[in-house]
Amino acid sequence: MQAYPTLDELVNQIGELRPIGAVASRILQLTEGERFSAHELATVISSD
Q: Total domain count for the chain?
């Protein structure tokens, strides 16, 4: 049986996370919508 991490362990791991970049953030925003085109997605990716 696998034990779950403690709250302290989780907090320590969060400190190791790097923020996502602007392009990744824009991709997430774009894909959260119901409709987006492959062209829109390609445009955002190519701007990276």
A: 1
- Tens digit of pLDDT for each residue in 17-46? 888 899 999 999 999 988 989 999 999 999
Task: Write out the residue range of the structural domain in which residue 18 sits.
Answer: 7-46
Residue 33 burial by Cβ neighbours in a 10 Å radius (0-12, 13-18, 19+): exposed
d(CA 7, CA 3): 12
Query: Is the residue at 23 inside a domain?
Result: yes
- The predicted pLDDT at position 41 comes to 93
Residue 2 falls within a domain, yes or no?
A: no
